[in-house]
Design a protein that fits this description.
The protein has five helices and three strands; from the N terminus they run E-E-E-H-H-H-H-H. With 105 residues, it is an alpha+beta fold.
């Protein structure tokens, strides 16, 4: 796994009661970031915050890729070190504003 994973912005569509922000798909070695969540951050907080959200999401999933058994606390510590930002700020921001109408096709 020395090469970097592929990174995609994807439409996750309906996800039940929880909005998934990003995922790592080991079968195709791809990190996907939820495009709807990314656009929500961009619309409400601006382009720089959207870039930081993307960096945080990729750092989070990349750590899961290399350390699949790591605790969420360890993952969050890695994201803080890699981006200088607390990843929970995006989880809270996006999920608190989650509205089913935003994720239905």
């Amino acid at each position: 796994m020395s090469r970097p994973a592929r990174i995609e912005i994807a439409d996750f569509g309906p996800c039940g009661d929880t909005l998934l922000l990003a995922e790592y798909d080991a079968e195709v070695d791809t990190i996907r970031v939820n495009g709807r969540a990314l656009e929500r951050v961009r619309a409400e907080r601006g382009a720089l915050e959207a870039e930081l959200f993307m960096a945080s999401a990729v750092a989070h999933e990349a750590f899961h890729r290399t350390q699949p058994n790591a605790s969420e606390a360890a993952v969050h510590a890695h994201v803080r070190a890699a981006t200088g930002s607390d990843p929970r700020r995006f989880e809270t921001f996006v999920r608190v504003r989650y509205d089913r109408r935003d994720v239905e096709p």
